[in-house]
Amino acid sequence: MQSVLAVAAVGGLVAALAERASNKNSINLPPAVPGLPIIGNLHQLKEKKPQQAFTRWAEDYGPIYSIKTGASTAVVLNSTEVAKEAMVEKFSSISTRKLAKAVSILSRDKKMVAGSDSGEFHRNGKRHIMKSLLGSSALKQYRASRDTMIDDMVSTFHKMVSDDPKTPLNFREVFTSGLFGLSVAQALGEDVSSIYVEEFGRVLSRDEIYEAVVHDFMWCVLEVDWRDFFPYLSWVPNESFETKVLTTEARRTAVMRALINRQKERIARGEARLSYLDYLLAENAELTEEQLIMLIWEVVLEAADTTLVATEWAMYEVAKNPEKQDRLYQEIREVCGNETVTEEHLPRLPYLNAVFQETLRRHAPVPILPPRFVHENTSLAGYDVPAGTEVIINVYACHMNEKDWDEPDEWEPARFLDGGRFRSAETNKTIPFGGGRRICAGMMQATNIACTSIARFVQEFAWRLKEGDEDKVDTVHVTAYKLDPLCAYLTPRARGTE
């Protein structure tokens, strides 16, 4: 009897495998990049810059292909056309986030709006952010804060040049400090110079606060847990990874709790201010401490990072290309005269807009969008994509496609101009802020801050790179974060005499 059952079981297994093979042959899957058994293509991605490997593979396999990352199958999209099909037309089938273990822990399992799945939490969270912080009406309310931030940075640059004109200044230090101050003020109602954290038993400086709530997170998400690729081995300990991520999460939570509690005391005294915290407490009295910490932390984190990346790369390119810097300066002079350039001038500065858009193309702040998960069978670019597949959108490849861009390696703002006018249609070939319903909520604020800052910095100073920095274009792993901070010589311009 047992032998009969064994034969039957084997026969059933063979039939099932044959049926699976038949089904696989009956669907039109994307071309697959050859890999190794078990690990798939992981060994080909060990350089930690997957966007570049993905782009090279696209030359052989086309704009859409599949890879194996351990136990998972991922479809990589390398053209704007196919990426938009996934983000817009097929959104209903590809709306789930796929988070790495580090991000899952740090986001408390998708308690961040940007990292959550499409659903009620995401809709409500984005609605609150747009209404209170990042929508067009909210941006008008915070206009004075943005102006003050840029004025303070310009004043800091002037003081640094005056104190030591022969030493190149570190752009990142100044811009990071200004941007962090703005993000904290928008989130909590005021900038902070220090905070007492009970769990640490001491006062943290402003720099230490930044490290705990922004910097440490950005570096921690680069940590790779090999168990992400082999979920069936999730029971195996990875102590060094877990210790680092859990320590980062605990520090972030402790600092954010201290910051929020200080502002709750202010609110209890009846001192209302314009801030996201004030708004949330007024609108959502039932929020738990965890929900409040995560929501406030997210807006601090996101406002303090990607805008820095884009603006630093723009100023690097401006300093590196004196003829393009002169063209931008002359445009500002013609439009603004001796007036200080402001956000109102932006629509009348086509070359400035071209500088910003070309920077987003050449140095996209997020070269690879957060992976998405196909939760029902769908199709992309004519290929069948089964449920359970990851979708990776390679923004870097989309922006470096020779079919869309002449000499894509070159930073050339004029490609966005037509007879001196800004060609907004060209921006349809780029996706620096994502697309569809999940397009970056902070797009308008980032554009206003970056463009106004770039214009003010060029209006006030002539920029020149530190010797030897002309080719320092390396980035930090998978991000577009500049590995070497921008260091430049600044020469103040005499208003009205040039």
Per CATH, the class of the largest domain reads Mainly Alpha
Report how far the terminal alpha carbons are from each other: 99 Å
Indicate the CATH topology of the largest domain. Answer: Cytochrome p450
Sheet with the most strands: spatial strand order: 1-2-10-7-3
Percentage beta strand = 5-15%
Largest sheet: 5 strands, mixed
Tell me what the CATH architecture of the largest domain is. Orthogonal Bundle
Shape: globular
What's the average pLDDT?
91
What is the helical fraction, as a range of percent?
Answer: 40-55%
Q: Which segments are poorly predicted (pLDDT under 50) over 5 or more consecutive residues?
A: 1-24
Number of strands: 14
Number of helices: 17
Main location: membrane
Protein name: Ent-kaurene oxidase
Pfam families: p450 (PF00067)
Binding site for heme: 440
Which key phrases capture this entry?
10% strand; 498 residues; 2 domains; KO_chloroplastic; oxidoreductase activity, acting on paired donors, with incorporation or reduction of molecular oxygen, NAD(P)H as one donor, and incorporation of one atom of oxygen; disordered N terminus; alpha+beta; oxidoreductase
